[in-house]
Amino acid sequence: MDNLTSFFINGWEHIVDINAYDHLLFVMTLCAAFKLEQWKQILVIITAFTIGHSGTLILSALDIIPANSKLIDMLIPFTIMITAIANIINYNKHGKFSDTKLKYGIALIFGLIHGLAFASNFKFMLFGDSILMPLLAFNIGIEMGQIFIVLLFMFSLWVYTKMIRGEHFKWNLFVSGAGFGIAATIFLNAINGGA
Fold it and tell me: What is the domain partition of the chain in residue ranges?
């Protein structure tokens, strides 16, 4: 297996690994307020998140911004909690997320924070002077993993809304509430030093 393939696989595993559930949780919470027919908005949201974390990944890999793992461990669950709250507050009576631009901003800004967590993994694997191709391979692995998670999530939403005939509002409430609860637990553990 060549070096670039290894970077791709590590990027993929950083997202789909069940032990990296904080990133899975963020992506699912980010998409929870959108219906199936809003798939274009979901693509824009995921792209905004990608732009954010790709930028931070590059800056951190080049040692332009430092990565404080303790701070990152607190900020990532905090981003999930804020996203969950925004999902519920901004969900209007017509069954759609009322302020999509706010959601794009959340995804972009929080992507910057999540990029710091990706960067620590990437820098650990980096050898030699060239970072461009390994960075690209690692980032593509992350994006493929992210798309895979979104597709699974959207399939689950399809089963819930089309086959079970569940209400999207309840879906959003459940996913956002679960996201908030799990993230709050992670956040409290991070504050208490992982105890």
Answer: 3-191
